[in-house]
From TrEMBL:
Residues involved in heme binding: 452
Cofactors required: heme
Gene Ontology CC: membrane
Cellular location(s): Membrane
Top-level taxonomy: Eukaryota, Fungi, Dikarya, Basidiomycota, Agaricomycotina
Highest taxon in the source lineage: Eukaryota
Organism: Mycena maculata
Associated pathway: Secondary metabolite biosynthesis; terpenoid biosynthesis
Family: Belongs to the cytochrome P450 family.
Keywords per UniProt: Heme, Iron, Membrane, Metal-binding, Monooxygenase, Oxidoreductase, Signal, Transmembrane, Transmembrane helix
Protein name stated in the entry: Cytochrome P450
PANTHER family the UniProt entry points to: CYTOCHROME P450 (PTHR24305), CYTOCHROME P450 12A4, MITOCHONDRIAL-RELATED (PTHR24305:SF166)
């Protein structure tokens, strides 16, 4: 039964919808969230599109009050049936996938790992990995004989991604992936190759079908579709590392080498320390985790903890390459503070902060999400809708798509230059009431109880890597046309190939 308020919503004409794929095929065929931005300009902050495979209309919501309400009520609006099976295949049943009591327990156990204090303690380990990246890139420039004339052109994605993999391994998992060394750990190379395959499978026309068919027939999630298989490969590799960590814990349990909870030292506060303590609790303990849950959280944090930050950071370097004046201003600020900046020093760099926010505004690594209403509800609206008013009645079972970029680039919120990379906008004071509800007025890290658990770490590594690279390397645009597509996360696509963003590098 279609609720009345959905019927009254505006939306794109059915003449541009496919009879079988609705409007969803158009969304997939365009750049990440591009169709939603275009439609939001025409139809406002809440509109409907026709779902594929005769699915009831899907509501697209970018109205600030409505989005805040949906994310604040995470027990009522849960991740949708199209969204969860791919997460399970890729990451397992860890924190990103879990719902209800299971989620609450996992979040309570893992939350303290990313407190301000804990993240501050990760500073020196992050610097070490960032400096390894700086050395690696500067060596490549020095070894390249054509560097004096033209600089060295390389695909920056794989270098940044190796650095963030090393960071998450070191600070969260007590595991050295050595992704940036001359002889990378075999696992690091396997993760990189399987992720690249997964990304490129996700860009193929057939990939559009997978979540849509799963939404219609959930059992298909287990079927041997190429997309589902490629998700499974990533998870299998990362879980293998998890097994080794658990085996080490089993051995250390007897000699008390890992975990250290009974020893004289402070208990380890990284993810693995916390997970292993939750593993050793007696059966029946409320905060006990099974081995399966631990393995799935190791794969969850390995993947969401490195590909996301790498994605947004790569696009930010591309923006800096395209705007040399902004890059110069950032470099001048960084150099004026000298080397060896402490955690507290880093917080003082205003322009760095502005560049990071601007990169995360325009290039959120996870640019949209989906929710399913578990009950009937009334959703408040910031802007009233003709024929509906300032509250929207919704029925149980309604699916919502929440694309972030249309909210981040809405000219009525951010002004006429909304689509332009201009960090100086963050140096002006803005009334928070005019911005979306979320970190810094952005939805980049989502909002509400299910916001990104790792946002403090993401912002700190973003800043440390930028500070470290910008003092010795100049990034130059290659002029190559780069498309932004979603394949699990936001991806740069060049000539149809995902995970590719060539940049030209010169020494400062
Ligand atoms: C720029 C980097 C990052 C971005 C843009 C980002 C974005 C997001 C977004 C949008 C969500 C909500 C997903 C949804 O509801 O559909 C999320 C959830 C999550 N993120 Fe991040 N993330 C980043 C980095 C990280 C890092 C570094 C970690 C951990 C080390 C992390 C761990 C998580 C976890 C565990 C969740 C699930 C939280 C829950 O459901 O309780 N993220 N992230």
């Amino acid at each position: 039964r279609v609720p009345d308020d959905v019927q009254r919503l505006p939306g794109p004409s059915s003449t541009i919808a496919s009879w079988i794929w609705g409007h969803e095929l158009l969304v997939f065929q365009h750049a990440a969230t591009q169709m939603y931005s275009i439609w939001a300009r025409s139809f406002g902050g809440i509109f409907k599109i026709r779902g594929a495979l005769f699915h009831p209309d899907i509501i697209i919501v970018t109205d600030h009050a409505a989005v805040q309400h949906i994310f604040a009520n995470s027990d009522l609006y849960v991740k949708s049936p199209a969204f969860r099976p791919p997460i399970k295949n890729l990451l397992g049943e860890g924190l990103v996938w879990a719902e209800g009591e299971d989620w609450r327990r996992q979040r309570k156990i893992l939350g303290p790992v990313f407190s301000t204090e804990s993240v501050k303690e990760m500073t020196s380990a992050i610097y070490e990995c960032a400096e390894r990246l700086e050395t690696r890139l500067t060596n490549l420039i020095l070894l390249d004989s054509s560097r004096l004339k033209d600089g060295t052109t390389l695909n920056i994605v794989q270098y940044i991604s190796a650095c963030t993999l090393d960071i998450i391994g070191t600070v969260a998992l007590s595991h050295n992936f050595s992704a940036q060394s001359a002889h990378p750990d075999g696992d690091a190379a396997l993760i990189s190759v399987s992720w690249a395959n997964h990304v490129n499978t996700g860009l193929k026309p057939l990939a559009f079908l997978a979540p849509i068919v799963v939404r219609a027939i959930p059992a298909v999630a287990k079927a041997p579709l190429p997309l589902m298989q490629s998700q499974g490969v990533v998870k299998t590799i990362v879980r293998r590392i998890g097994y080794r960590i658990l085996e080490r814990d089993n051995a250390a349990g007897k000699t008390n080498l890992v975990g250290q909870e009974d020893g004289p030292q402070k208990p380890r506060q990284d993810i693995i320390g916390v997970l292993l303590r939750a593993r050793r609790l007696g059966n029946g303990a409320l905060e006990k985790l099974s081995d399966e849950q631990i393995l799935d959280n190791i794969s969850t944090f390995t993947m969401v903890g490195h590909e996301t930050t790498a994605g947004s950071l790569t696009f930010t370097l591309w923006e800096l390459a395209r705007q040399p004046a902004i890059q110069d201003r950032l470099r001048a600020e960084v150099l004026s503070y000298g080397r060896d900046l402490s955690y507290d020093d880093i917080q003082k760099l205003e322009f760095l902060d502005a560049v990071v926010k601007e990169g995360l505004r325009l290039h959120p690594a996870s640019p949209q999400t989906e929710r399913l209403a578990l009950h009937d509800d009334v959703i408040p609206l910031s802007n009233s809708v003709p024929g509906i008013g300032e509250a929207f009645r919704v029925k149980k079972g309604q699916i919502f798509h929440v694309p972030f970029t249309p909210m981040h680039t809405n000219p009525s919120t951010w002004g006429a230059s909304a689509a332009v990379f201009d960090p100086t906008r963050w140096l002006e004071t803005r009334d928070p009431a005019t911005l979306p509800h979320g970190w810094s007025g952005l939805l980049t890290f989502c909002d509400g109880p299910r916001n990104c658990l790792g946002w403090r770490l993401a912002v700190l590594e973003f800043k440390i890597i930028l500070v470290t690279l910008i003092r010795s390397i100049v990034f130059v645009d290659t002029g190559v046309s780069v498309e932004e597509k979603i394949s699990s996360t936001l991806q740069p696509v060049v000539d149809g190939k995902g995970g590719v963003l060539p940049l030209c590098l010169k020494l400062v």
